[in-house]
Design goal:
heterodimer; A: 358 residues; mainly alpha; two-stranded antiparallel ribbon; globular; B: 358 residues; MetI-like fold; 2 domains; 13 helices
Chain lengths: 358, 358
């Protein structure tokens, strides 16, 4: 009951976050386009007819109430449509169909990077953090901490480019591009009679993403190793660890069965909190490895005037949705793994300082 | 146990009690004992001296500045630029015959030394540009941290001190906005809001674009100090000394300024040291995204992104124009500075707040 109420509260918070972020997106997009660049849409010289000006106004939604537009967008979202693209044909605004077919593959690519990267980070940071935290101040601890710090201080883009160059020199792995997880590799014959290589399937997918995942993991190693280290160092002095040792548990068993589970919980929280940072980092990784992901798409759209309302709001919604859903999943997992969640609510914790600003 | 004997002497009236030591002096003593922290402070001082005086000194020594193009150092015949420690003809225009073919250099042509090689197609001195870039990057890092603190202090203080409804609104808003990757805000703001600041400059001290970028980075990252300030004040506002001050009739303003502000200094100092490093990384990132400072102005970001390209046209590894020194030196400057800032911040934290857990 208590857990249910806790989860309900987190769900409400998640929805509120989503609503606020979409509102912020609307608020940011509008003032910019008060005077839409009419000249960009017509080939003839200025004076423009009222009809043409009105058409461009319609394209930028300047004729509508912003609140109604917001509600309309939310209604569409509830019905599962992320938004439609619009285009000016002559002096008519025409609907070019849902943005989904372009956005969702990019979304898939970014999700793949984040998911695999997160798994790799956990796989790396748990053992390294355990080694570090078991004897704080030892040589192993110092070396691990220092290397991790240097890696996080190397820019993700530089790290990606270096790994890509190294991968290119070694020629073990493909160094760029993306293959979807679904689909299959092979040669297809197009309608024009040409052959085209398609790639896809789990093997191609993981092969193409191995270096991006590694980049991601190396970058975040510092943050997570540090957390595991602190947690392990703290837990090692607990009574139940001493009891287990007294009962003759081996050091390995001690760490794996008694110490790491609580550190794992902490790492889980961190993964949830760092999703937005991870998305920002994935922009650089996508760029370094030439993957057409959501982050890269977002930078291209948000960085090139004139801003298209449909695209901007759709992208902001998708990214916020990812963060909010990720956070909520972590909340649920937390409530399942640690039933005290309702009592000692999940540690609020600030986002990590160094990673946060990416 | 020298202090026990001293204590006995004081108690028997043979010696005067020692003067109490202030918290700052105590912190400084603890800091000096931290070997890593002291070493990073030393390195940071060296970096600061190099950034401030390196370019001017080197200009005096070699006789050319960072803007002088040397065609003989670079792309006269489409070759890659010359490497570190090379002497090239001190001519700013190539000697060619009337058909554009290269002419041999006359005997006794003066040469000039490029300490870290040339920077690309223009053949400018990489070393001088690197020192200039370090200075600009540090300026951006420091200014942005300052802006962030200036924004965060009033809001965070009010939210944390008064709590209640004000705090609810502020913390809900910051948390919702922080759920979104802040980098994308930066991208958007850089493209659409920067026009007012873009031209602001002051000779070579503050090149054009530095102020604008600092204000943006500072505004976007101000959520972190805001949360720190708020969290600390939420605890401190119930402290005895605050109640005592209120009891003797101090106003809210006075309590905040005279009693609470000094307690925030250590926290903000530690955050500031890390933030300067993070801001430098953000600056590098913005240059990679094709935003940020104009590429003609050397910063660590523009130095690196002229080699590796930007998100819209990345340069991939190519053995023909492979110029490792253009990557290694700016990257080393970046990594060393950020690592030292982090180590320094760690040392300051453990010196000023010895009981705080990491």
């Amino acid at each position: 009951m208590r857990v249910a109420r806790y989860l309900l509260r987190r769900l409400a918070r998640a929805v509120l976050t989503l609503l606020i972020m979409i509102a912020v997106a609307f608020a940011l997009v509008f003032p910019v386009d008060k005077n839409p660049p009419v000249g960009d849409f017509f080939s003839h010289r200025p004076p423009f007819s009222p009809k043409e000006v009105r058409a461009v106004d319609h394209l930028f939604y300047l004729h509508q109430s912003k609140v109604l537009l917001y509600l309309h967008f939310l209604g569409q979202l509830v019905r599962g449509n992320i938004g439609d693209g619009h285009q000016l044909v002559g002096t008519h605004v025409t609907n070019t169909g849902s943005l989904g077919p372009i956005l969702f593959p990019a979304y898939g690519a970014t999700l793949s990077i984040l998911f695999g990267g997160a798994v790799l980070v956990v796989l790396f940071s748990l053992p390294l953090g355990a080694i570090s935290g078991k004897r704080v101040g030892s040589w192993a601890d110092r070396i691990i901490s220092f290397v991790a710090l240097v890696l996080v201080c190397t820019h993700p883009m530089m790290l990606g480019l270096i790994l890509r160059s190294a991968g290119g020199a070694v020629k073990w792995l493909p160094t760029g591009g993306y293959c979807p997880l679904t689909g299959h590799s092979g040669i297809t014959i197009t309608s024009a009679g040409n052959t085209a290589m398609t790639c896809g399937g789990p093997l191609d997918w993981s092969e193409h993403l191995a270096l991006p995942w590694l980049t991601f993991a190396l970058l975040f190693l510092a943050l997570y190793t540090r957390i595991v280290r602190a947690n392990v160092a703290e837990t090692m002095t607990e009574d139940y660890v001493r009891t287990a040792r007294a009962k003759g548990a081996s050091e390995t068993r001690l760490i794996v069965r008694h110490v790491l589970p609580s550190a794992g919980l902490r790492v889980l929280t961190m993964v949830g909190m760092e999703i937005s940072t991870a998305i920002a980092v994935s922009i650089y990784i996508e760029t370094a490895f030439g993957i057409n992901g959501l982050g890269r798409l977002a930078v291209q759209l948000l960085g090139t005037p004139p801003l298209d309302l449909d695209w901007a709001v759709a992208i902001v919604t998708l990214i916020t949705l990812l963060v909010v859903v990720g956070n909520f999943v972590v909340d649920v997992l937390y409530a399942v793994l640690d039933p005290r969640a309702g009592v000692f609510a999940r540690p609020e914790g600030t986002k990590s300082l160094l990673g946060g600003a990416f | 146990m020298a202090w026990v004997a001293q204590f006995e002497r004081v108690r028997e009236g043979d010696a005067t009690p020692p003067r109490p030591i202030g918290p700052w002096r105590l912190g400084w003593r603890r800091f000096r004992r931290d070997r890593w922290g002291s070493f990073s402070l030393l390195v940071l001082c060296v970096i600061l001296v190099l950034a401030l005086f390196g370019a001017a000194t080197l200009t005096r020594l070699v006789g050319h500045n960072g803007q002088t193009p040397f065609p003989y150092a670079a792309s006269l015949t489409g070759k890659r630029p010359v490497g570190p420690w090379t002497r090239v003809a001190a001519l700013t225009t190539p000697r060619v015959d009337e058909y554009g073919g290269p002419l041999p250099l006359p005997r006794g042509t003066k040469t000039t030394l490029l300490v870290l090689g040339a920077d690309g197609p223009l053949g400018r001195d990489e070393a001088i540009r690197l020192f200039d870039g370090m200075r600009t990057s540090l300026e951006i890092g420091l200014l942005a941290a300052l802006v962030a603190v200036l924004i965060a202090l009033p809001i965070g203080t009010v939210a944390g001190y008064f709590g209640g409804r004000v705090d609810d609104v502020v913390s809900t808003l910051t948390e919702s906005i922080m759920a979104f990757p802040l980098l994308l805000f930066l991208v958007y703001a850089n493209r659409f809001l920067l026009n007012d600041f873009g031209a602001l400059s002051w000779s070579w001290v503050l090149p054009a674009g530095v102020v604008g970028e600092s204000v943006l980075i500072g505004a976007v990252t101000s959520f972190y100090p805001l949360r720190l300030v708020r969290a600390q004040l939420l605890v401190l506002r119930h402290a005895e000394f605050v109640e005592a001050a209120r009891m003797v009739g101090a106003s809210d303003r006075r309590i905040m300024r005279r009693h609470l502000l000094p307690h925030l200094v250590p926290t903000l100092l530690v955050w500031g040291a890390i933030a300067v490093g993070t801001n430098m990384l953000v600056e590098v990132g913005l240059s990679f995204l094709g935003l940020g400072v104009d590429p003609s102005i050397p910063t660590l970001g523009t130095l690196l992104s002229t080699v590796w390209g930007t998100i819209f046209n990345p340069n991939t590894y190519n053995s023909h124009n492979y110029t490792p020194w253009q990557t290694i030196f700016p990257m080393a400057a970046m990594v060393i500075t950020v690592v030292c800032l982090n180590r320094f911040a760690d040392a300051v934290r453990s010196a000023l707040e010895p009981r705080a857990t990491r």
